[in-house]
Amino acid sequence: MSSRASVSRTPRVEWEFDKVVFDREFPRNVVTKLLVERAEHGGWELDRVRIGNDGVRRVVLRRKIIRAVRTA
Question: Which domains does the chain have, with CATH numbers?
Fold first, then answer.
């Protein structure tokens, strides 16, 4: 399993993306548990999943970036 995070900026909402790769040795239920844990504890949601011909799962997670607004 490996991951890499990046930030995307749009005029209204800013998203942080995290790319995670699971080898084919990880069973489906283990991948599900790992992704659910990241969602519950890190605030991530599923953006897209790609399963390659070699069985490698490439998952993109995203979460909103909430910027604090300074008040006077």
Answer: 2-64 (3.30.200)
